Amino acid sequence: MFELDLRSRAPVYEQLVEKIKELIINNVLKPDQQLPAVRVLASELTINPNTIQKAYRELEHRGYIYSVPGKGSFVKPAVPGTNDARLQALENELGKIISEMLYLGVPPQEIITMLKKLLAKKEGGKLDD
């Protein structure tokens, strides 16, 4: 399920956070689906269980998963309007990306076309002009 690069400069727990986050965002891991137990995943990946626990704590802090004592960790369903701080951070990142694209000479209309194409991919091919 997860492939980690143990030679990467990025800490293993950060790699794990990004992989799980990607699986949640791409709907591979469904809302309320249970994540692998810490010990099970640690043995599969041959890494320290504390590393898995740290990644799960970070994902919980970011609002991607929730924990049920004695049961494990589960994918948290997305609830509109509860992630204002994260949405603001993402909007700031998007602004930086758009500024860089404009600096590199990409016309605004081409940026809009790119965004529409990306949105269409995420929505199953619907493209409204």
**CATH superfamily of the largest domain, please?**
Winged helix-like DNA-binding domain superfamily/Winged helix DNA-binding domain
Number of E strands = 2
> Structural class from helices and strands?
mainly alpha
Q: Radius of gyration, Cα only, in angstroms? A: 18 Å
Low-confidence regions? none
The CATH architecture of the largest domain comes to: Orthogonal Bundle
CATH class of the largest domain, named: Mainly Alpha
Write down the overall mean pLDDT. Answer: 88
Q: What is the helix fraction of residues, given as a range?
A: 55-70%
Which sequence of SSEs, written as H and E, runs from N to C? HHHEEHH
How much of the polypeptide forms β-strand, as a percent range?
5-15%
Q: Enumerate how many helices there are, as a single number.
A: 5
End-to-end CA span:
38 Å
Number of domains: 2
Largest sheet at a glance? 2 strands, antiparallel
Q: What is the CATH third-level topology name of the largest domain? A: Arc Repressor Mutant, subunit A
Strand order of the largest sheet: 1-2
Describe the global form.
globular
Overview of this structure, please?
The protein has 129 residues and is mostly helical. It has five helices and two strands, in the order αααββαα. The chain folds into two domains: 12-75, Arc Repressor Mutant, subunit A (Orthogonal Bundle), CATH 1.10.10; 84-122, no CATH class. The protein has a two-stranded antiparallel sheet with strand order 1-2. The longest helix is centred in the last third of the chain and has 20 residues, at 84-103.
